[in-house]
Amino acid sequence: MMKRLLSVIVFVLLVVQSMRAQQYDLLLKGGHVIDPKNKIDAEMDVAVSAGKIAQVAKNINAKNAKQVIDVTGKYVTPGIIDMHVHAFNGADVDSYIANGLTSLPPDGFTFRAGVTTVVDAGSSGWRNFRQFKKQTIDKSQTRVLAFLNIVGTGMYGRFEEQDTSDMNPQQAAWMIKKLYPDIIVGIKSAHYWGDFTQVDKAVQAGNLANVPVIVDFGEHDPPNSIEALFMQHLRPGDIFTHTYSYGPKVRETVVDENQKVKPFIFKAQQRGIIFDVGHGGGAFSWRQAVPAVQQGFLPNVISTDLHSQSMNGGMKDMSNVMSKFLALGLSLNDVILRSTWNPAQVIKRPELGNLDVGAEADIAVFSIRKGDFGFLDIRNTVLKGTQKLETELTLRAGKVMWDLNGLAAQPWENELKK
């Protein structure tokens, strides 16, 4: 009787010891980790516990994890931040972006591209942000942050975006500082047909709320000076989006007609102006991007300008836009930097875009396909490339949200054993 009791006690102790040993919920093992913030570019394992990064190190003992996912030969990065999207999806058929059909529900388009955080680029203003929060932000598994449009009705339509009486810096700043400082990261100025009035009101709001301003400076006829924009109106830390757009009749370009980057562009970047890709359906041309990169003018941030009119054209998704910059000659580390840690710093969210121990476990796992690929711009011209990022796995707060090839799954035959 005593021997049997001792055996039971030993068994229980072994079970308890085993359970204690399994200190991690999940272990990504054997992958190549790229974490620009922490200057990691090496083969390492990543352990996750309670939705947080628990450890990043070489050869973490697999026995300490409840689930082990073999990611050998793949790249493990912080969850991607797409800093320019339009996610205020709704059913107002009279609206362009705000609560309209052109905006997209984020969860359907983020995780499959390795994206765990998006920043809506001014779809809503101070009048309708609460609706956006209620029907999109609060309902999404993707982390959704936002730039607040300086126009109260947001991006409802081009005519509404010209209404200077609806551009209220005080109301916009109040909404950020008093109501939603955890969600709203900046102010948006876009699509204004006049002078610098809208930009200046956006900057005024940015000063009041201590947040950056992102500017879509298109649609001026004749074009306004972007040198004046960078040097006289914007502040260091403010953002110029659609950097490689080509539409010289309505917007001054960064590369001149002789394929030379204008000298003041480099000076503006040195001054602290942030250059964002903002690919979109009409704002990325190889005739701008290729000579710019060749001459050393690189974007600070890679982003998609995701909406229904961009995803089926040259843009496609974030992983495709990132692959374009591989084709332009950037290293994978440079591409990941501009898609994780750089945007996190721009929007003043240093807890994002990295694999710090204790950070929320937002993780992307990519493979790099080798082959003969063609990358389209918005003018239907193609640049050839030999490698392409493919999203294998996306974790949001430690939960698997996308699994392309069943890396995190069990063989179906295991079902027969139950």
How does this structure look, described?
- This protein has 418 residues and is an alpha/beta fold.
- It has a domain at 80-346: Metal-dependent hydrolases (TIM Barrel, Alpha-Beta Barrel), CATH 3.20.20.140.
- It is 24% helix and 26% strand.
- The protein contains 10 helices and 17 strands.
- A 7-stranded parallel sheet has the order 8-9-10-11-12-13-14. Strands 3-2-7-15-16-17 form a 6-stranded mixed sheet.
- 50% of the residues are buried.
**Counting H and I runs of at least 4 residues, what is the number of helices?**
10
CATH fold type of the domain at 80-346: TIM Barrel
For the record, what is the CATH homologous superfamily label of the domain at 80-346? Answer: Metal-dependent hydrolases
- Residues in helix, %: 10-25%
DSSP E strands, number: 17
Q: Which percent band covers the strand fraction?
A: 25-35%
* Global shape: globular
CATH class of the domain at 80-346: Alpha Beta
- Point out poorly predicted stretches: 8-20
> Which CATH architecture of the domain at 80-346?
Alpha-Beta Barrel
Mean pLDDT: 95
SS-derived structural category: alpha/beta
Order of the strands making up the biggest sheet: 8-9-10-11-12-13-14
| N-end to C-end Cα span | 33 Å
- How large, in whole angstroms, is the Cα Rg? 23 Å
Element-by-element helix/strand order: HEEEEEEEEEHEHEHEHEHEHHHHEEE
Describe the sheet with the most strands.
7 strands, parallel
Topology:
Layout: H1 2-21, E1 24-29, E2 32-35, E3 40-43, E4 45-49, E5 52-57, E6 65-70, E7 75-78, E8 80-85, E9 115-125, H2 129-135, E10 143-149, H3 169-179, E11 184-190, H4 197-209, E12 213-216, H5 226-233, E13 239-240, H6 263-271, E14 274-275, H7 286-294, H8 318-327, H9 332-337, H10 341-346, E15 363-376, E16 382-396, E17 399-403
Parallel strand pairs: 1-6, 2-7, 8-9, 9-10, 10-11, 11-12, 12-13, 13-14
Antiparallel strand pairs: 1-4, 2-3, 4-5, 7-15, 15-16, 16-17
Helix pairs in contact: 3-4
